[in-house]
Amino acid sequence: MNKHKGFTLFELMLVIMLMGLLVSSVKFPSLGQEPFDQVDQQSKKVAALINLASEYAVLNNALLGFSVTESSYIFLMFDGKKWNRIEEAPFTENELEPDIKIELMLDGLEWQSQNLLSAVEWIDEEALEQSSEQTEEEKKLSFPQIFILSSGEVSPFDLNISYDNGFDTPITFKVRGEFVAPVLVLDPKQIAEL
To answer: Which residues pair with 161 in a beta bridge?
Structure first.
């Protein structure tokens, strides 16, 4: 009888197929952060900065503002005549990662008529005239969309921070301010429950 030493072609193909299935089920760590973690970290950073700005405003008896564009945000301080960018860390301009976007929502929030924010005139006519020479993004960053008063009061807002690269399912966290600090961070599960 002639004994074969080795494997048949069928046995080799079966082993290769099983190895392929095992390798495809293993998830290799990526070099960058996961999108969920990126958005979570950015949302917590924005919330922490707004809370810190509220404390700064109280301690320094200052009027602060917060402005956003789709890809950046900045803090402003009112000097009695006009709004100026804050150039000291951590309140300097922050650029976001390319796939992370910010959307500010001011409409649809309940507004109380008896609050400090409703009693103040904020529009500087001179600043509006000068802003006609600026680009749309510079205009957005030169006047606050969210106000942080020296009392610690914060104008109400919803700030959606999203990751959307066009391929994966979009991930959105919400930073919510409701008149007083601290502002809240809501994850996608908490947003769905609203």
So the answer is: 102, 173
